[in-house]
Design brief:
This protein is of the alpha/beta class. It is built from seven helices and nine strands; from the N terminus they run βαβααβαβαβαβαβββ. The protein has a nine-stranded mixed sheet with strand order 5-4-3-2-6-1-7-9-8. It binds NADP nicotinamide-adenine-dinucleotide phosphate. NADP nicotinamide-adenine-dinucleotide phosphate binds next to β1, β2, α2, β3 and α7.
């Protein structure tokens, strides 16, 4: 059995490859049908991970929205929504954020060693704080999640976190949704930053599926031999 969860990366980008706007305004890239598809994927996972900047900027709830899917999870003996996970160096997170206050599932904050004290003080009542080393070791983090019973992990962004998972080879599957408009402002965040990736001109990723969902396109890539399995 593998020591880490099956890892699925998921995000939406503009036609010019951005996953947010340059302003603080939250940019909605998907449409309702695609949000429902994402909800289905969320419901199939044991945990959802986002970076601390996404928690601060978007204030996401990270819950399964569909009553039917919540009910199916409960019937399987699970919580209605998956465990919520974030990573931080500075632990400058607000315990009143939706990440910490909504839903019935556990929240886990993987925190760089230097900020564990403040993290426990600020967030200890709302989340499990894990000392994740200095610097945070993503391989260790995924192993720890696996030991906590997470066998399927969804990583929902942002760019910083997605880049690290891709660079570290901790990605079995990528769901990339392309929205039909441009952001046109290089101050916005691209889907991935600079990095060394296993997939380059000589090592092309395998495109497993292309799906039209209303006005967006879902590109589904198999990034590892484990693709599709657990
Ligand atoms: N279009 C989409 O599908 C989508 C999805 C999600 C997010 N987004 C957008 O993405 C933007 C945020 O992306 P981002 O790239 O700026 O940030 P991010 O990836 O959400 O978070 C980055 C932060 O996470 C923490 N972090 C990441 N890796 C770490 C490590 N190895 N060790 C310790 N801490 C670590 C750090 O937090 P601290 O600063 O606390 O130390 C870092 O500043 C938002 O605007 C959001 O709207 C878009």
């Amino acid at each position: 059995m593998s020591e880490r969860p099956y890892i699925l990366l998921s995000c939406a980008v503009s036609l010019d490859g951005y996953l947010n706007a340059a302003s603080e305004r939250r940019l909605l890239l998907s449409n309702d049908a695609d949000f429902d598809r994402v909800d289905e994927v969320r419901a199939s996972c044991d945990a959802i991970l986002v970076g601390a900047t996404t928690v601060r900027r978007d204030n996401p709830r990270l819950l399964v929205r569909s009553e039917a899917r919540r009910g199916q999870r409960l019937a399987r003996g699970l919580t209605a929504s998956p465990v919520k996970v974030t990573i931080t160096r500075r632990a400058e997170l607000d315990a009143s954020a939706a990440f910490f206050t909504t839903g019935d599932a556990e929240r886990i904050v993987y925190c760089e060693s230097t900020a564990v004290g403040p993290a426990v003080e600020r967030l200890g009542a709302a989340a499990t704080i894990v000392d994740a080393g200095a610097p945070v070791d993503l391989h260790g983090l995924t192993k720890d999640l696996h030991a906590r019973g997470v066998s399927r992990l969804m990583v929902e962004g942002g760019a910083n976190v997605l880049t690290q998972f891709l660079e570290a080879g901790l990605a079995d599957e990528l769901h990339l949704v392309v929205a039909p408009f441009f952001v046109g402002d290089s101050r916005a965040r691209r889907f991935v930053g600079d990095g060394q990736f296993a997939w380059d001109v000589d090592h092309r990723a395998s495109l497993a599926e292309v799906r039209k969902i209303g006005d967006v396109a879902l590109l589904r890539y198999a990034l590892a031999a484990r693709f599709g399995g657990e």
